[in-house]
UniProtKB/TrEMBL annotation:
Cellular component terms (Gene Ontology): type II protein secretion system complex
Transmembrane residue ranges: 21-43
Keywords carried by this UniProt record: Coiled coil, Membrane, Methylation, Transmembrane, Transmembrane helix
PANTHER family on file: GENERAL SECRETION PATHWAY PROTEIN G, TYPE IV PILUS NON-CORE MINOR PILIN PILE
Domain of life: Bacteria
Organism: Crenobacter luteus
A GO biological-process term: protein secretion by the type II secretion system
Pfam families linked: N_methyl
Claim: Coiled coil is one of the keywords in the record: yes
Name of the molecule in the record: General secretion pathway protein GspG
Residue ranges that the Swiss-Prot or TrEMBL entry lists as coiled coil: 48-78
Length: 173
């Protein structure tokens, strides 16, 4: 009879009936450790994805501005833009690409526009500056190794001192 009671007690115990179902402390700690490891692996991947997106935006912006500078120079060489005697033919400022310049060949002096809007340097941390101030500018008279501003804008570069995923500093792109 004693054996029967022991069996009855085993059948009616909380473990046997499932009344206390749940996770043990060790199971919870193992689960949290696994989640922590997965999160620590995902964070660098997310940071690289953000950096890669900024780099693509920088490439696009540089290509857009440089194409507009080349188009301005071509229009200047064709005589469509008035230029001073000793001028290089490049714009005096980046804003001229957006504001437009009078077309010398047009009877109504319609404006030539080279950009719809000036893109901001995506690597710049200066959100309070206007778009043109976020870019470094190189004049036609300055050396490529030591770009300096001057009377015109021959090229633009990022002012960021950070290094890209390809190992090249952004200001050398």
């Amino acid at each position: 009879m004693k054996k029967r009671r022991a069996n009855d007690d085993a059948r009616t115990s909380p473990r046997a009936t499932g009344a206390h179902r749940g996770f043990t402390l060790i199971e919870l700690l193992v689960t949290l450790a696994i989640l922590g490891i997965l999160a620590s692996l995902a964070l660098p991947v997310a940071q690289i994805a953000v950096q890669r997106q900024q780099e693509q935006e920088l490439r696009r912006a540089l290509r857009e501005i440089r194409s507009a500078l080349d188009a301005y120079k071509l229009a200047s060489d064709e005589g469509r833009i008035a230029k001073d005697g000793g001028s290089s033919g490049y714009p005096r400022s980046l804003e001229l690409l957006v504001e437009g310049v009078p077309d010398q060949r047009s009877p109504s002096r319609a404006k030539l526009y080279f950009l719809r809007r000036l893109p901001r340097d995506p690597m710049s941390d200066a959100t309070h500056r206007d778009e043109a101030a976020t870019w470094g500018k190189r004049s036609y008279a300055s050396d490529a190794a030591a770009p300096m501003e001057g009377d015109d804008v021959f090229d633009v570069y990022s002012r960021s001192s950070r290094v890209g995923l390809n190992g090249v500093p952004y200001n050398k792109w």
